[in-house]
Specification:
This protein is an alpha/beta fold and 368 residues long. 39% of the residues lie in helices and 20% in strands. The chain has a nine-stranded mixed sheet with strand order 7-8-6-5-4-3-2-1-9, with helices on both faces. A hairpin with a 2-residue loop joins strand 14 and strand 15.
Length: 368
């Protein structure tokens, strides 16, 4: 039985220079055909697996880049094919320029419970650096539209350690977010991913990584948000009580999930595969009832253990102590003495000092 479903909508009206996900402008893509291909892929997987969704997630790209008609057809198609009685969370990512009051009302009516709005920053200069296509006032208006639509939970995506972004500007961004009372805030440290324009600027020396700046911005967000009553339950995620992202938690805890759409990943049992990252080719395969997946890779015990280190250590729940091998116990003790880890209740958790160093700590702890 598969309980977690992800749908990748790769369309963006403008491609952000820092984003490494599979995405592109709509171009000449026939949107009716795209929606039909997604539903055809769902039909095929429904025949192969026992789909009983507990969480659904529309990511991208920009799912709300679909017109209201196409998005409504997609949501209606899902509801006619799946049993929604067990759905605890249905999330849709949105861009401030792609949400209208009628589109928001339609999404809520057809079962969407949670919307994640990609705001990233509340000042025009930082938005310009990020290549975003909206202004701060547009983001504020869209936020009001979503609040008025009555979704069960609203998330606000923010980003820090952006070139040219002073700590004080980041502080004002986080404080502004708090005044708007989101149920959940995702605060991401900018990463320079390969195959992005930002990575090329880094290589050319136009941009520079700065661990001290990263840590300063991280602690600033941590202090402001915890003071405001948000639980820091994963390195980049903060939630009010009852508003954790259930879908993302399924990834962090290693649950099985199926991905639909071009470039989407799936992990079931000991296998992981990726759909072809080519929208036209994916549509051709999916529409004809054929698999759009590239060859699957087997996840052996060693690979699964590495993933659990990399993901569970990021959470407030922490890493099960029994995953730390005897040969790694001396390093565990060293990291604990350095104040980066806390071992209690059969779990290994990051301390405040260890949180901004999570990746380095995980690598050190996994070493033999």
């Amino acid at each position: 039985m598969i309980e977690h479903l992800y749908f990748h909508i790769p369309f963006c009206h403008r491609v952000c220079p820092y984003c490494s996900f599979y995405k592109h402008t709509p171009g000449a893509t026939p949107m009716t055909g795209f929606v039909e291909a997604l539903l055809a892929e769902l039909d095929r997987q429904n025949d192969a697996h026992d789909l009983k969704p507990r969480t659904l997630y529309f990511g991208g790209g920009t799912p709300t880049a679909l017109s209201e008609t196409h998005l409504e057809n997609l949501l209606s198609g899902l509801r006619s094919r799946l049993d929604f009685s067990g759905v605890a969370e249905f999330s849709v990512e949105a861009n401030p320029r792609t949400v209208t009051p009628s589109k928001a009302d339609m999404m809520r009516r057809l079962g969407v419970t949670r919307v994640s709005l990609g705001i990233q920053a509340w000042d025009a200069e930082t938005l310009h650096t990020l290549g975003r296509d909206h202004e701060p006032d547009e983001a504020g208006e869209t936020w009001r539209v979503l609040q008025q639509a009555g979704f069960s939970s609203l998330n606000m995506d923010l980003m820090f350690s952006i070139p040219g972004q002073p700590a004080e500007v980041w502080r004002r961004t986080v404080e502004k977010a708090v005044t708007l009372q989101p149920d959940h805030i995702s605060a991401y440290n900018l990463n320079y991913e390969e195959d992005t324009e930002f990575f090329q600027r880094l290589r050319r020396g136009q941009y520079h990584e700065d661990d001290s700046r990263d840590a300063e911005h991280f602690y600033l967000a941590l202090d402001v948000l915890e003071t405001a009553g948000y639980e820091h339950y994963e390195i980049s995620n903060y939630a009010r009580p009852g508003h954790r992202s259930l879908h993302n938690e399924s990834y962090w805890l290693g649950r099985d999930y199926l991905g639909f759409g071009p470039g989407a990943f799936s992990t079931v049992a000991d296998f992981r595969w990726k759909n072809v990252a080519d929208t036209a080719e994916w549509m051709r395969r999916a529409s004809s009832g054929n698999s759009a997946a590239e060859p699957a890779e087997e996840i052996n015990d060693a690979a699964r253990r590495v993933e659990r280190f990399g993901l569970e250590l990021r959470t407030a729940r922490g890493l099960p102590l029994n995953l730390v091998l005897p040969a790694q116990r001396p390093m565990l003790e060293t990291l604990e003495k350095e104040g980066l880890l806390l071992v209690a209740g059969g779990r290994v958790r990051l301390t405040r000092a260890g949180k901004p160093l999570v990746d380095s700590v995980a690598v050190a702890l996994m070493g033999n």
